[in-house]
Amino acid sequence: MSEVIWGLGTSHVPSIGAAMDRGVTDEPVWAPLFDGYGPAREWLAKNTPDVAILVYNDHANGVDLDIVPTFAIGTAEKFSVADEGFGRRPVPDVQGDPDFAFHILNNLMDDGFDMTVFQELDVDHGFTVPLSVWTPEPGDAWPCPVIPLMVNVIRYPQPTAARCYALGKALGKAIESYTEAQTVGILGTGGMSHQLAGARAGFINPEFDKMFLEAIENDPEKLAALSREDYIRLAGSEGIELIMWLVMRGAMNAEVRTVHSAYHVPASNTAAGLALLDNRTDV
Ligand code: DHB
Ligand code: FE
């Protein structure tokens, strides 16, 4: 039996990764954001899981915009870091866990989630920036193997928040029934409120984001009940990335404990939020 030990919700804004790669995180414009990450990073460094599952979206770097799967899983041994047009980030490639990924795939299929399978996949900022938020200095390798779980948030219609939450519940069951890995961390990524183009470009909604950061611990059903139109209206056309945090939350226990949360506006055009949830409230 495997156990989810933590869930981490975090934004994936590319400039957060670029600030780390360029070594400017101490500069006044960036320091408040990275100071906010400190306590989560310290806790995570002491709680490295055997395997992580990273729920994310690609931004037309790993998959073509014409063929975007609603839900997909990566079953490869290794995932390369994508070149998004300005050279690949100087961070390690990602080691996968094919056996665990196939176990999850089979269980999700049996539970009615018809997953697309990636046997080859380059991962973009949606994946590498959350890894850097977790582990700022990975050296030659990330702290553990990481399985990509991809969600379509960029092509209409996106899956509903309720469906993402249900996927998380099925994921939690699949993890529990796996006998090989012992401890698992889950990252739910993207958000918080932002809109990168169109009439509302630059739109940010701190009230909604703060409500979301609280409810992700205490009332995820409320977040799962919001429609995709609610997310776009309240969090912006790219703020709908937040539905991916619900996959993470669905895989956790009903009761979790927030270890640390942080919120900073603006990082680029996006409200950057973080929520670190401990799944073991009895220890
Ligand atoms: C930004 C945010 C995103 O979520 C993204 O995928 C790309 C850019 C931004 O705020 O710059
Ligand atoms: Fe994004």
Molecular structure report:
- The chain is of the alpha/beta class.
- Strand 10 (257-267) and strand 11 form a beta hairpin.
- It contains 9 helices and 11 strands.
- Helix 1 (14-21) packs across helix 4, helix 3 packs across helix 5 (161-176) and helix 5 (161-176) runs parallel beside helix 9 (243-250).
- The structure holds 3,4-dihydroxybenzoic acid and fe (iii) ion.
Low confidence ranges: none
Number of strands: 11
* DSSP helical segment count: 9
Associated small molecules: 3,4-dihydroxybenzoic acid, fe (iii) ion
CA-based gyration radius: 17 Å
Report the biggest beta sheet as strand number plus sense, adding barrel if it closes: 8 strands, mixed
Rough outline: globular
Strand arrangement across the biggest beta sheet: 6-3-8-2-9-1-11-10
Average pLDDT, to the nearest integer?
Answer: 97
Query: What is the strand content?
Result: 15-25%
| SSE succession | EHHEEEEHEEHEHEHHHHEE
Topology:
Layout: E1 3-10, H1 14-21, H2 31-45, E2 51-56, E3 71-74, E4 78-81, E5 94-95, H3 98-110, E6 116-118, E7 122-123, H4 125-134, E8 146-151, H5 161-176, E9 183-189, H6 206-218, H7 220-224, H8 228-235, H9 243-250, E10 257-267, E11 270-278
Parallel strand pairs: 1-9, 2-8, 2-9, 3-6, 4-7
Antiparallel strand pairs: 1-11, 3-8, 4-5, 10-11
Helix pairs in contact: 1-4, 3-5, 5-9
This protein binds 3,4-dihydroxybenzoic acid and fe (iii) ion.
The site of 3,4-dihydroxybenzoic acid (DHB) has 11 residues, from α1.
